[in-house]
Amino acid sequence: MVQVTAQSHRTTKADRFDDDDFPAYTMGRAAEMIGTTPAFLRAIGEARLITPLRSEGGHRRYSRYQLRVAARARELVDQGTPIDAACRIVILEDQLEDALRMNEQLREQNI
């Protein structure tokens, strides 16, 4: 993962409840949900950790997946990690998780 982006979806309204990538949350609501400020969300956007989808009016919209990523970055920042370093750590953690998952799949195929 280099960047987490919200994707435009053509789903039914009911499907959106289960879609982790559906950009359902405004900046204010997203910040409230993870206990931070809109400025923090803008900062991790500038650090290219997440890229929210923009509404037709230009407002940022965040998905649940993006909020989990932002919450992890916030956790690191709260522990004293500079924001750019926190974003890099989150990216590396995600890449490691992907690599471990792929490794496990390859092991299962060779059994």
Given the structure, what is the number of helices?
A: 5
Q: Could you give the order of strands across the largest sheet?
A: 2-5-4
Q: Which parts are unreliable, with pLDDT below 50 for 5 consecutive residues or more?
A: none
The total strand number stands at 5
Mind telling me which CATH architecture this is?
Orthogonal Bundle
Q: Sketch the topology as an H/E string, one letter per element.
A: EHEHHEEEHH
Overall pLDDT: 87
Q: What would you report as the Rg, rounded to the nearest angstrom?
A: 16 Å
Q: Classify the secondary structure makeup into a structural class.
A: mainly alpha
Which CATH C-level class is it? Mainly Alpha
The biggest beta sheet is recorded as: 3 strands, antiparallel
Region (Disordered): 1-21
Organism: Streptomyces agglomeratus
GO molecular function, one term: DNA binding
Protein name: MerR family transcriptional regulator
Overview of this protein structure:
It is a single chain. By secondary structure, the protein is mainly alpha-helical. It has one domain (4-109): Multidrug-efflux Transporter Regulator, Chain: A, Domain 2, CATH 1.10.1660. 57% of the residues lie in helices and 10% in strands. The protein is built from five helices and five strands; from the N terminus they run βαβααβββαα. It has helices at residues 13-16, 27-34, 38-46, 64-78, 83-109, and strands at 4-5, 25-26, 50-51, 53-54, 60-62. α4 packs across α5 (83-109). The protein is globular. Residues 24-92 form the HTH merR-type domain. GO terms for molecular function: DNA binding. It holds the Pfam family MerR_1.
